[in-house]
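As noted in the main text, all predictions were made from sequence alone. Below is one such record, for RNA pseudouridylate synthase domain-containing protein 1-like.
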Amino acid sequence: MINGERPPFSAVEVLYRSENFLVVNKPYDVVLNWDDPSRTDTLQHLLQERFPDLVDQSLKHCFRFVHRLDYSTSGPVCIALNKKAAGHAGKAFCQKQVIKQYLALVRGHISEDHLSIDKAIGEQVTPDAPVPMCVEGTPGCQHPRDAVTQLTVVERGLFEGQPATKVQLCPVTGRRHQLRVHCQSIGHPIVGDYTYSCRQDTEPYRMMLHAQKLLIPLKGEVIDIETVDPFTTTFDPRWQSAER
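Prediction:
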């Protein structure tokens, strides 16, 4: 991506491939799969076109996605190429052996260099609420579950002339929209997060959240992926670091 322009959909990068796994770099604003087979703007459809030999017609969505990324989030997605591999990877996720690290640009300058955000997350059931998830204590929040995110400041700067901070986010738990909810809860929503900015942050071309690192420590095959930081001035001059 140069100057915030996404590459052609067909140019999705293959990050890793073996007999058991395929890892690709999912673009932002792309859904993994969809129940409607006529929808072609999905990662599933792209994989079907590029790797027809890997399609498993016995599966509803043709591929064994080991984990998921939100529609707006970019970064590595791992696909198991057989049932046994899917089982091993699924076990690693269930046993919390997998390490995931994200990069994000958030609004404002965070004063602390490191934060441990320990706030339970539940469903927002208030009618017409603009957000689906919320932290415990929010009016209308039901069935909150423990959620912990480790936040480390990478650098402070400006995005489109407004104060912003680049942070590394490490989810200890895996709740729905956890990183987005936790950032919003400390007063620093992710740049371009339309939903958790209460529908106010509409100018950026994307939500600035990228899954930079994925480590799945499997016996006999360690999947260790680290992608390029998309939030640099070289890739996107809208971002300007103030720490040079």
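The longest strand covers residues 148-159. The mean pLDDT is 93. These features were considered when defining construct boundaries for the mutagenesis experiments described in Section 2.9.
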